[in-house]
Amino acid sequence: MLCCMPGVAFVPALLVCWSSAAFIISYVIAVLGGHVEPLVPYISDTGTKPPESGVFGFMINISALLASITMYIRYLLIEKQNESSHFVRSSCNMFTLCIGLMGCTGMGIVATFQELAVPSVHDIGALVAFGSGVVYITLQSIISYKSCPRWNTFFVCHIRMALSVISCIAFIPMIVFASKVSMRKIDWTPGEKDYTYHFMSAICEWTVAFGFIFFFLTFIRDFQRFSLRISTEIHED
């Protein structure tokens, strides 16, 4: 008995929509509740206090799961394409998947351990999520170029690489500026000590996060040409 699932483009599409909603809904609830200032808070700031903390934790955990599924399907897709084209080593494809799954684990840590409750664990999770994410999309961009022109257009590859470069550039000052912030708080207001560092770091953080989202958006076309087949065999005694 053979069950066919034609096209899996809904997976990255759902990931993009769900993750965007997670950031936006948490932000809106946090701002309306007076917990953060509207002007570019950290993403984690919008998921620290209830009720937005519950929404943030739940939705980001689901995003991490969807991202894991998307990355695994991408791995399978490249393996299938590689059977006829041999454009990348299987070990490199597996390594890229492992890096991506590390980032998803970091997302789960960020969602589970709030910024003010367990700051050290939260920060480690955020560093793993953003660092692994940047490496993952960069490796995927390189793999995309290697698969040209048979499996990808150069236009799509250029977009992916541009998003990777922007995310990499934003990731470095995000860490540098965050390390200069001497206070751990979420209700920042202009004019406070270290506010400039906080503001610049937060801008970079949002840039990297939406860089990931737009990158996964480019997977939709590829996933339209890919179907998962689940085969079940019944053996008679």
UniProtKB/TrEMBL annotation:
<feature type="transmembrane region" description="Helical">
    <location>
        <begin position="155"/>
        <end position="177"/>
    </location>
</feature>
<dbReference type="InterPro" id="IPR019402">
    <property type="entry name" value="CWH43_N"/>
</dbReference>
<feature type="transmembrane region" description="Helical">
    <location>
        <begin position="54"/>
        <end position="73"/>
    </location>
</feature>
<dbReference type="GO" id="GO:0012505">
    <property type="term" value="C:endomembrane system"/>
</dbReference>
<feature type="transmembrane region" description="Helical">
    <location>
        <begin position="124"/>
        <end position="143"/>
    </location>
</feature>
<dbReference type="GO" id="GO:0010506">
    <property type="term" value="P:regulation of autophagy"/>
</dbReference>
<dbReference type="InterPro" id="IPR050911">
    <property type="entry name" value="DRAM/TMEM150_Autophagy_Mod"/>
</dbReference>
<keyword id="KW-1133">Transmembrane helix</keyword>
<dbReference type="GO" id="GO:0005764">
    <property type="term" value="C:lysosome"/>
</dbReference>
<dbReference type="Pfam" id="PF10277">
    <property type="entry name" value="Frag1"/>
</dbReference>
<keyword id="KW-0472">Membrane</keyword>
<feature type="transmembrane region" description="Helical">
    <location>
        <begin position="94"/>
        <end position="112"/>
    </location>
</feature>
<comment type="similarity">
    <text>Belongs to the DRAM/TMEM150 family.</text>
</comment>
<protein>
    <submittedName>
        <fullName>DRAM1 protein</fullName>
    </submittedName>
</protein>
<feature type="transmembrane region" description="Helical">
    <location>
        <begin position="197"/>
        <end position="220"/>
    </location>
</feature>
<keyword id="KW-0812">Transmembrane</keyword>
<feature type="domain" description="CWH43-like N-terminal">
    <location>
        <begin position="8"/>
        <end position="225"/>
    </location>
</feature>
